[in-house]
Write a structure and sequence with these properties.
Helices cover 28% and strands 32% of the residues. It is built from ten helices and 28 strands. Strands 1, 2, 3, 4, 10 and 11 form a six-stranded mixed sheet that branches. Helix 6 crosses helix 7 and helix 6 (213-230) packs antiparallel against helix 8. It binds adenosine-5'-triphosphate and magnesium ion (MG). Magnesium ion binds at residues 16, 18, 155, 179, 337, 367.
Amino acid sequence: MSELQEKNSPYVVGIDLGTSTSILAIYRKGRPEVIPISGERVTPSAVSYRADTAPLIGVQAKRRTLIDPENTVVSIKREIGNASYDRTVCGQKITPEAVSALILEHLKNGATEHVEGNARKAIITIPANFENNQRQATLEAGRLAGLEVLQLVEEPVAAAVAYGFGSERDQTILVYDLGGGTFDVCILKVDTQAGGQAKFRVLGKAGIPKLGGDDFDDAIMAILAAELVKAGGPDVLDLKKDQGVSKKKLRTACQTLKEKAEIAKIELTDAEKVAVDAPNLIKNENGQEFHLSCELTREQFNAAVKPLLEQSTECIRQALVEAKLTAEDIDRIILVGGSTRVPCVRTMVTEMFGKEPYGDIEPDTAVAQGAAIIGASLSEAAEKPPVNYITTTSHFLGIETVGRRFNEILPKNSDVPAENKKVYATTYDNMKEIRISIFQFPEKVEFIDLKVPGSACLGEFYLGPLREAPKGQVHVEVRFGIDQNGMLTVAAQELGAAGGGQAKQLEIRVS
Ligand SMILES: Nc1ncnc2c1ncn2[C@@H]1O[C@H](COP(=O)(O)OP(=O)(O)OP(=O)(O)O)[C@@H](O)[C@H]1O
Ligand SMILES: [Mg+2]
């Protein structure tokens, strides 16, 4: 171990653990700074396993997607938190957490020299719509990589912090984040307070866990595969039909098409049409070789991805409804994520809001930069950015009362950390115990109805034995507290009983 590795870095690093690419940044000398890892600002989120030696990570691993697709893992973020993920490479079973941990470790080790020591403390960003299991799995990946994750921060929030950091106006901003694998939209209010601190509040958010550049590539792949069929070749996307070609060959051809598709997509950002050539793409059992040579226009591409973009506009509408705002209330639109470079994405957003998105933000690095700013604001280091980062609860939280009614204890959009308590009385004589069932609802509801999307029963416990008394005379206090990481603690206690009465509590992670 080098001398530097033994010393802890004074920085809290911000890590954007992306589906396609990952970035590490720190806050130094009054600004966020992207740290080059092996000389590159952006590291492909790829891991390539090898039989008897350590896996390759990043650029070298990405290069092996074509040479050794079976042992090379990409887009693992799409699987994080998936308990039934089942893949064996080089004879060993891998988990999404372990793969993600290798990427994190690669960034961490690659940063040592630049961050003046072992980067131990980190902020990791996650899509806004990550479920609990995905959050837990990301924390686990951080732990496996030897990181102390101070907080998981939602990607659009981090991007907004990076944007709002230099801004001195109060404003409502909408972050449209279309990366490689996930889509998030988030509406935030930035308040510039006295003392130059900026306070960020999330008003509404929505997203699609599996929508991104990977799907754009798939849409192009489908066009290319159809072209190959037209040229008399096999359908490389059909692994079920007997086409006289081995599955392995079909898969390799598929991988080539996927690469060609991504290149064509990126070229179409600047060009109106591109040529796609894949000589000797696949050979059938008679030794006949098939080549792909076709032209792809931006118009064709736009038509292919239109349904995907429509899904994203639906999310924008949902987020606006949640924020109780209309498109006119948005002061600034920020595009984040590599896929927002696609011209029709920009056009769609411009048309929807009647104004151009803000151009002065780097779509690829904003998330990591925001995470670095938040990291510095939470660190003990002397250099603090002028940011007061506040998150809010995304649901109404409460318990069930008589008649399956929902009784709210913490309202939606409460500043986190938050705390509140309520007192409940027994509802019949000599009631022996009381059931505390904890629920979340995205909207105000009178009755418990788990058919409401986004609603959930978060947990349940019984408090008892209570002292015997006529109904209404025994009181139980229920206290809800939610901390910075979204951990909800529910505590219940019988009031006024000799010796303090029964008390119980439950800890639940909420997002
Ligand atoms: N010039 C471009 N034109 C079109 N697409 C592009 C361009 N540059 C990058 N992309 C696409 O952007 C995607 C990667 O974006 P980004 O690095 O922001 O994603 P990510 O952070 O890894 O993913 P996520 O945020 O979804 O986890 C890839 O699908 C890539 O093909
Ligand atoms: Mg991203």
